[in-house]
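Intended use. Records like the one below are meant for learning the mapping from a protein sequence to its folded structure. Do not use them to infer anything beyond what is encoded.
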Amino acid sequence: MDDATLRGRVAELMPRAKADLAEMVRFRSVHDAQQFPAEECDGMVDWVVRAFRELGVDDVAAHVTSDGSKAITGSIPGPEGAPTVLLYFHHDVQPPLGEDEWDSPVWELTERDGRWYGRGAADCKGNIAVHLTALRALAGQAGVTVKIVGEGSEEQGTGGLEDFAVRNPELLRADAILIADSGNFAAGAPSLTTTLRGIANIDVTVETLSSAMHSGMFGGAAPDALAALISMLATLRDEHGNTTITGLDADAEWSGVAYPPERFRSDATVLDGVDLVGSGSVSDMVWARPAATVLGIDCPPVVGSSAAGQPRAWARINLRVPPGMDAVYAQDALIEHLRSVTPWNARVSFEREAVGSPFVGSTSGPAYETLTDALQTAYGTDVLIQGQGGSIPLCNVLQTTFPEAEIMLFGVEEPQCLIHAPNESVDPSEIERIALAEALFLRDFAARATTTAGAADTG
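Structure written out for the chain above:
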């Protein structure tokens, strides 16, 4: 099947892709039974199983994992001796984060200004639509064995699929693994995400008094736990906004695509007149250097607060760990830094909330070269190399379990999608072009892999 025919098939399938996505968005598949009924996740799983079974994935099945979520696996056999490609997606989504913050119904796919809105429209149900569209366009003419794996608790980070992958390696073993949970640098700018920052989260508790004390009678001499915590958190950045955790290198530079500051301001919704932070380039700051963010502080709210110094205060700190830095070491450094700057001999304690290693994907090899060519053909322009601030712990598990596999991240989640935020959306042209690129890859990878292997044998 030539490029033009495949491109035409994908274009003809776009109404079906929209219908698929509309059905998927209706499922409130948040893997958190305290917020949404478990039946919503089960319904989404059943829908995905049916959709792939209709495509010829005869052995598609759902498996209950260690965290109660369901992983979906299946395969379509290719020609004898052909390489195997694993297509990854996740079928759970983030909670709405306030339905009144949305301009259209959260769980109803709504078209507005050329984009499709709804929770999960991009992350990651838009990528499921990509897989379905690519396989339909190929109509059984892929040159490889295709495997699928769908995760049911990626957004909660509870590790069900990570454990499942180690216990069931034959279901996932592949020569190339396409992680469809990323996106382009910008809509229309084909990109591969080659690095992911890891995480090293901690909870810190500061205690100074046995009771809240009247600020008029005791303020000025009584050590206020909240004031102590604020002073400690203030040391995590310097006056320019650089992360300043003792023992961590904060001067690394990014060698891939440059992130223009004005584009970043728009993507990050930075208010007019407010400065960007850090002494490096935007790309350095978000992809190559550690970044500490205070996720939350437990203290009295303004409304209902009383005139009293606080006996204790808590904070959760998220430390993003760049490639080349050990996440456990970084977590240790964060704890020791905060311990060293604790004022007034206040009592301080720490709890390790989460830790995940950074990831570096494939940047060479037959699969990488085939996918780069496929993206360039689909978009008609050169492919960019970017990092991502987020972490996908499964990538490290797959890399350890299948060290010979080429692992690449791509997808429909460009910055304007506002994933994890209210008014999440997807650009349908991204679904179309990413689906075309994936179809081209599945058509061409076997030939590239064979040529590469032959050259190695004769070399």
